[in-house]
Each structure stands twice: as C-alpha cells, then as structure tokens.
C-alpha cells in the first residue's frame, strides 16, 4: 500500500467520514497490541487518508482503556505525517459556546498512569513538549474553519485542554479549579495521543468541538451524556467539513512541522547499546536514527 500521509482520529460522535471514497478496512497489529478498531483507508477528494474511530466504531472503549500506543504506532506504520484529532469537549469558559470549535495549544494532564510513551525497556528519550500541538498543522485547520461558512460556530485559536481521567465527569470543585487555572476546555483523551504522536514524529492537532458547559455555569445544567449527544451530530457534520478542507490544504501545501524531527535531540541512550528486542519493537519510530 502507498504511504498514507494524513490520519484522522474521530472521537465521540465522529465514527466515520462520509465523504471517503474507495474505502478499505485495514486491520493492523502492532508491538503495542491492537488499535481501537480497523483503520478505514480511502481517499478524500483524491487524497489518501486513514481514519480511526478512537473508541471503536461502536464506542465500546472507555477513555482509560484506549490503546493509545497501538493507535499512534499503527498510524505511523501507514506512513502518517499529519494527524488531526476530533474530540468532544466541555467548555470551561463562557465565551466558548456549545458548537464552537477550539484549537488547543496547551494541555494539562489530570490522567492517572496511562501509558504515554513508546520508550523504556532499555532506551530513554525525552521529547520537547512545550508546544504539545503542532502550530503549523493547527494553522491549516484554522484556515479551513475560517474558509467555511459554519453558522453558529466561533473559532477559538489556542487555549488549554484539561485531560481528565474520567469516565465520570468532573465535580463542581474540579471544574472551578480548572477554570481558575485559565483552561478553556475539558476532555478525556487527547494528552496521550499528543505525546505519542510527538514521539513518533507525527504532527498532531486537536479539533475540539464544544458540547456543554461542564458543570460550572450558573445558567446551564450540568453536563450529561444526553446533553452531549444533542450537540454531537451537529459537531460531527461540521468536523467533517473542516477535516475535508484541511486535507485538501495539506495535500497541496504540506507545512513543515517541528514534530517531524522531534527525536533528533531526544534520545539519551547510545543506540548501539539498546537491547535488540527493543530496537526491533521501535524500529519504525527509530528508523531515521539507526
Ligand atoms: C461522550 S462524552 C465524554 C467523552 O467524549 C470525549 O471523547 P473524545 O475525546 O474521544 O471525543 C471525552 O474525551 C470523553 O471520552
Ligand atoms: N464536560 C466534559 N468533561 C469531560 N469530557 C467531555 N467531553 C465532552 N464534554 C465533556
């Protein structure tokens, strides 16, 4: 199969890309286990893309059960260099209204002990993660949103995504705490993806789609799944339009990304001393450096 340079991870509500043509289901096994589901590989307006439903197409995986390493490794094995994640989020700011889109440029990690690195077992690497999403890829997605006429949608460029453990939603005290930290949105899935994508030298961005005001807003009911579902359908339609436009832009003008060289100065271990089994396991990620 020819390399597929653009990957899409669909979150809650986005289980398929309607406009994909010539689709093939590709089942991928990885040294980190099985991904969330089969990959759907096809073309969007002539450009090859790989789509993965983050929680599985029947939404059967909890946020803490997601096989983040396998998902990102499998994207890398397909040849993915640019990865767009679409995610449902709660809003932590009055100005971020349900149906709005946010392109977060920071994360706060409130998860508990989820695997979030490919390294270990005899090889140590520390990636730089000060800017956890790729600014160049985020800019392409921002241009795409701006080029579309999406009624009732305001784009918020930048903002902090709190990645909580879940699956229960936050307490009011937690929600207020995150607001006091200046965070914009809250979700349960994107932090590990962003870290692993950076380790795999894949440019990553999050298209965060607001569904609710979590539980802090005095004039809105506290978040429920029912409330979220009410906005998911609309958000999924908008997300597909944005992603389609972004794919066209990426295909015609792929931007340089700092993510593509993220490992250059990150690996501390002398590669000659890395155990053979670890080298084999990580060959896909290390290939440029071996
Ligand atoms: C459906 S409500 C909570 C659920 O939605 C978000 O998922 P995703 O990021 O995959 O869109 C959130 O992180 C929770 O997992
Ligand atoms: N309020 C919320 N908290 C965590 N994840 C969410 N996903 C959508 N809304 C959310």
Keywords:
single chain; 28% helix; eleven-stranded mixed beta sheet; Rossmann fold; 290 residues; binds adenine; alpha/beta; binds the ligand CSC[C@H]1O[C@H](OP(=O)(O)O)[C@H](O)[C@@H]1O; 11 strands
Describe this structure in words.
Keywords: Glycosyltransferase, Purine salvage, Transferase. InterPro entries: MTAP, Nucleoside_phosphorylase_d, Nucleoside_phosphorylase_sf, Purine_phosphorylase-2_CS. Homohexamer. Dimer of a homotrimer. The protein is an alpha/beta fold and 290 residues long. The chain is 28% helix and 22% strand. It has one domain: Rossmann fold. β3 and β4 form a beta hairpin. α2 packs across α5. It binds ligand LNRAV4D5 and adenine.
Short summary:
The chain is an alpha/beta fold. 28% of the residues lie in helices and 22% in strands.
The CATH first-level class comes to Alpha Beta
Strand proportion: 15-25%
Order of helices and strands: EEEEHEEEHEEHEHEHHH
Radius of gyration: 18 Å
Apparent shape:
globular
Q: Helical content, roughly?
A: 25-40%
Give the distinct bound molecules. Answer: the ligand CSC[C@H]1O[C@H](OP(=O)(O)O)[C@H](O)[C@@H]1O, adenine
- Report the mean per-residue pLDDT as an integer: 97
Ends: how far apart? 24 Å
Q: Low-confidence parts, pLDDT < 50 over ≥5 residues?
A: none
How many strands in all? Answer: 11
**From the coordinates shown, what is the CATH architecture?**
3-Layer(aba) Sandwich
Number of helices: 7
User: How many discrete structural domains?
Assistant: 1
What structural class should be given to the helix and strand makeup?
Answer: alpha/beta
CATH topology, which one? Rossmann fold
Q: Mind summarizing the main beta sheet? A: 11 strands, mixed
């Amino acid at each position: 199969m020819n390399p597929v340079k653009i990957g899409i991870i669909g979150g809650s509500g986005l289980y398929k890309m309607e406009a994909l043509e010539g689709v093939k289901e590709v089942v991928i096994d990885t040294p980190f286990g099985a991904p969330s589901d089969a990959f759907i590989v096809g073309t969007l307006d002539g450009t090859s893309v790989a789509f993965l439903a983050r929680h599985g197409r029947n939404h059967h995986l909890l946020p803490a059960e997601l096989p983040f390493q396998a998902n990102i490794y499998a994207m890398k094995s397909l040849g993915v260099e640019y990865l767009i994640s679409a995610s449902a989020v709660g809003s932590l700011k009055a100005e971020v209204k349900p149906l709005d889109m946010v392109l977060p440029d920071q994360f706060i990690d409130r998860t508990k002990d989820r695997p979030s690195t490919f390294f270990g077992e005899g090889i140590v690497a520390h990636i730089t993660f000060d800017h956890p999403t790729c600014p160049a890829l985020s800019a392409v997605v921002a241009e795409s949103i701006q080029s579309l006429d999406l009624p009732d949608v305001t784009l918020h460029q930048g903002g902090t995504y709190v990645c909580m453990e879940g699956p229960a939603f936050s307490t009011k005290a937690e929600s207020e705490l995150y607001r006091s930290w200046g965070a914009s949105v809250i979700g349960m899935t994107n932090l590990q993806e962003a870290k692993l994508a950076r380790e795999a030298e894949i440019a990553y961005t999050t298209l965060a789609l607001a569904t609710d005001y979590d539980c802090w807003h005095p004039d809105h009911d506290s978040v429920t799944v029912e409330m979220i579902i009410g906005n998911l359908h609309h958000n999924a339609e908008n997300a597909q339009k944005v992603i389609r436009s972004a794919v066209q832009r990426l295909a015609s003008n792929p931007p340089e990304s700092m993510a593509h060289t993220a490992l250059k100065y990150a690996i501390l271990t002398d590669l000659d001393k890395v155990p053979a089994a670890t080298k084999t396991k990580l060959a896909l990620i290390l290939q440029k450096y071996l």
